[in-house]
Amino acid sequence: MSPETPLDVLIDLAQEKLDEAGRALSELSARRREAQGQLNTLDDYRADYTRRLQNTTEQGVSASNYHNFRQFIATLDEAISQQNTIIAQIDVRIEAGRKQWHDEKRRLNSYETLKARQVRQWQYREQRREQRASDEISAGLYRRTRQPH
């Protein structure tokens, strides 16, 4: 069998696309973890400032300080909302990336299945060719031993 068939080229290309899809999915997952970390930090800040506001109001707080606390917490709420939107967008891209990876994997598996079938057919033809050659040699030896000298 020739060293590189068109099917081998397709398998190599499909493997490259699968690897590329895997790298992209891995990168998206890393971005998701980073975005989730940022969201967790924002949530922690918000919880901390909410506790501070509650403690401060129990001890008495001026209207301007109360307003500043509420305004800062509102700013954190907006940042948390934006971060949730970013995470949702990344999740959509991750799902698309997973689908892409599965499609590429399916394509590669199809090519590999075709290649395996091609190899089996080639092996079968080779075995038949070798059997015929062996049969011809045996028949020739048999004829020589049966012929009178």
TrEMBL record:
Biased composition, class Basic and acidic residues, residue ranges: 125-135
Any single Pfam family the record assigns to this protein: FliJ
Membrane topology note: Peripheral membrane protein
Gene Ontology CC terms: bacterial-type flagellum; plasma membrane
GO MF term list: cytoskeletal motor activity
Record keywords, A-Z: Bacterial flagellum biogenesis, Bacterial flagellum protein export, Cell membrane, Cell projection, Chemotaxis, Cilium, Coiled coil, Flagellum, Membrane, Protein transport, Transport
Localization in the cell: Cell membrane
Coiled coil (UniProt feature): 11-38
One BP term from GO: bacterial-type flagellum organization
Keyword Coiled coil (UniProt): yes
Chief location bin: membrane
Residue ranges of the region described as Disordered: 125-149
Family: Belongs to the FliJ family.
PANTHER family on file: FLAGELLAR FLIJ PROTEIN (PTHR38786:SF1)
Name of the protein: Flagellar FliJ protein
Phylogenetic placement of the source organism: Bacteria, Pseudomonadati, Pseudomonadota, Betaproteobacteria, Burkholderiales
